[in-house]
Amino acid sequence: MVATPIGNLADISERAIEALNTVDAILCEDTRVTAKLLLSRNIATPTRTLHDHNEQDRTPFLIEKLHDGARYAVVSDAGTPLVSDPGYRLVRAAIAAGIHVTAIPGPNAVVTALTLSGLPPLPFMFLGFPAPRSEARKTGFTTLRAAEQAGLHSTLIWYEAPHRLIETLEDLIDVFGPDREAAVGRELTKRFEEMVRGTLADVLEHFRTTAPRGEITLLIGPSAEDDSGAADLDTHLREALTTHSVKDAAALVAGIVKLPKRTVYARALELSRELKN
């Protein structure tokens, strides 16, 4: 598993170059993208495609070849393989088959953005790409917000497509609020690298006036230390009371917000009476 540059071709390591020169073939997402890197280093090793659409079908053949002594390097279009990129199925199958797997570390947009963001570096959680549709995206964000109210305290990181960034920022504001600390890394390590920092509202305003382009990494900081979920208690209870009894709704919501069960139950009773009236 060979990490390749996320933008600046000079970021490839000597070990990566050696590996790409000595394996039997390079398995890559897009041979045209990888060809630019190989050409820059005069690497003539043949390439084969390994992407989301063919990895499952190709894996048995590749495992057979590996058993016969073949050596492959797996690369993504940019960065570290498997991190929102292909390779997971092949690695799992190779491990199960007792085949030696190793990695040559290198660039990764998640860690690069985290180090530049100014947000707390530990703990952090990388969540891949948000759902492309707003409803599913908000559901995912709401689950994370509930986890925060239950005790999660972490910087959260996603990749995002530039044409969806503004909508995603709007959905984040709906769920986490406009004042949550945030950062967006764009075109990291490239000539037009940009790191936008501020609140979610600040970052959204920036990209409403400056259209986002290129590769995007999106981060929000952890919830406040004193975040108890009390502000969202009524919202959660009203939603739960539409389908649950007072007792069940209180039990469900008490598992979401960091408040005593007795307090949640008392408020559930009050809201239940209001809803009946």
Structure description:
The protein is 44% helix and 13% strand. It is an alpha/beta fold and 277 residues long. It has 3 domains: 84 residues, Tetrapyrrole methylase, N-terminal domain (Cobalt-precorrin-4 Transmethylase, domain 1, 3-Layer(aba) Sandwich), CATH 3.40.1010; 112 residues, Methyltransferase, Cobalt-precorrin-4 Transmethylase, Domain 2; 46 residues. α3 packs parallel to α4 and α7 runs antiparallel to α8. It is elongated and about 75 Å long.
In short:
With 277 residues, this protein is of the alpha/beta class. It is built from 11 helices and 8 strands.
Determine Rg (CA atoms, Å): 23 Å
Largest sheet: 5 strands, mixed
| SS elements, strand count | 8
Mean pLDDT: 91
In total, the number of domains comes to 3
CATH domain fold name of the largest domain = Methyltransferase, Cobalt-precorrin-4 Transmethylase, Domain 2
**Which term fits the overall shape?**
elongated
Binned strand content: 5-15%
GO cellular component, one term: cytoplasm
InterPro entries: 4pyrrol_Mease, 4pyrrol_Methylase_sf, 4pyrrole_Mease_sub1, 4pyrrole_Mease_sub2, rRNA_ssu_MeTfrase_I, RsmI_HTH, SAM_MeTrfase_RsmI_CS
Family: Belongs to the methyltransferase superfamily. RsmI family.
Catalytic activity: cytidine(1402) in 16S rRNA + S-adenosyl-L-methionine = 2'-O-methylcytidine(1402) in 16S rRNA + S-adenosyl-L-homocysteine + H(+)
